[in-house]
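User: Could you check the structure of this?
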Amino acid sequence: MSTPTNMNSPYPLPPKVHPIPSHLLDLRPASEIDTLLLNPPHPSQFPNTEKNLWFYWHTGYSTLPPHHRRTIHAYFRRLSPLGWTIRVVDRVPNSPLNISNYLDITDPNLFPLAFANGTLTGTHAIQHSSDLVRFPLLLTYGGVYADVGLMQIGDLDRLWTQTVGNPTSPYEIIAYDGGETTHRTLCNYFFASQKNNPFFSRCHQLLLKLWQGKQSTEGMHSHPLLASVPLMGQTLTLKEGDKVFSSQECAALLTDYIIQGQVMTLVLGLIDTETNWDGPTYAKEKIYTLEFMLGAQLINQYTAWNGPKAFQLMSMSLPKEGEEETEDQRLAKETVENCLSRSFGFKLATGIILRFYGDTLGSLWKKYPGSDCVEGTYAGWLRYGMVWWGQDELPRCVGFEKEFEGLKRGQLLREC
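Assistant: Sure, the predicted structure tokens are below.
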């Protein structure tokens, strides 16, 4: 992939977006950036900053699919000049980025035995190993944890500086709202906090408790400690071959898969007077919540979660001079312009979601390498804007203003 350029942009600049000056971007060739990403400095070399950006890829950065690597490059070009260190940690033996170089994986207060022994099982064992590194990394070093499939669009450094990184700000966490209307929950593909955060500390204690004696997340949805938390995905349907899954079976599958989300929901709804923890109040006052659909799912909203449709729109070329714009081009243009001007990011859906919805934009970009960055296409326009343009305004905090009595009263690790 060649070094990008901001001279004579091949794409129109959307409203409420401005070009980023070249001196604020890292414009080294991709090969040089790869070398730096494979050999980042340890956080101990910079004890006075928590500008750490963490990713995880079990088999190492070098094995990332090309579309994910381009996403990491975009983060690097935008954020490394502003003092951020980007690390893609792994479980590769002898790798400088092996998680064991950052955390003691044998410490039972950090990781369950199945992680330490490498005995996690189940269809989504790799995703769950990723879940297990997020809280410990943030609790130990602070910063941002993001999935490699989260394409960053908005100004992460500016938002950090005005909230979590600002000692006068009331906010201690940045995260995406989970989109629920009956209770409070967060998505687990993006977290920002300083180290030793009290919310993530409690979440991690509960997650470790759920993993005790377990090799996978199967059945965790029914753990007594989560009895007060509604299951996820109760309106989903699934048919595989002759097997038709009931709504309860669908909810159990999804909840086991996103068990980290259940953990956060419980802690957000926990009131424990013995440890002076009031989850509903903490959520309302301390978490800068980004809106679910607008914030990170806008392409899915425009395409009704139809992955092939999203892929088709993003793969189209913009109309050439003199050509009349088609209906699909108009929709693709509206989608990209709104993503670049209004969304803080875009989450490429993968994992278990493919069982419910079939191919997604992310799975199709993986199947067709290079299709996410073809010059002159709407995907190319989105990729270009992620590096070269900044939004005029920060995303608003949607907050948890609605009164909420909570889900559980008592100690975190005591059954109701």
